[in-house]
Amino acid sequence: QLQLVESGGGVVQPGGSLRLSCAASGFTLEHYHIAWFRQAPGREREGIACSSYSTGSTFYPESVKGRFTLSRGDAKTTAYLQMDNLKPEDTGVYYCAVGRNFERLWGDEEPDYWGQGTQVTVSS
Fold first, then answer.
1. Nearest-CA neighbor of 25 among 95, 98, 88, 89?
2. What does each C-alpha distance from 56 to 33, 51, 112 come to in angstroms?
3. Does residue 1 register a pLDDT over 90?
4. Half-sphere exposure of 16 (CA within 13 A, CB side)
5. Mean of the pLDDT values across residues 85-98?
């Protein structure tokens, strides 16, 4: 079974930090574009980070730029999302996703694999 599993979510106060992990089972991430998405109840899903394996570039929307950082683990089966200076509006379910085609992953939000999601709650 090929799977992506997220972990590291939880409850944090505004201004705090969390580090989310994405672990691949049954395959490696070396030749996959990697993205993180989030979704709050009643809101559209939002892409918050995407890393291109072919160019090495990473993209962030203005809502998280400067606060969130996507990275790849040395094991080539893991990816991370470091989230700093968290705000209440960052609350939502966070999903890891990977795909071979960048436009399909980041533009169309149609990855080859989705993770199951991990809850992040930012509240005082």
1. 98
2. 9, 7, 19
3. no
4. 15
5. 98
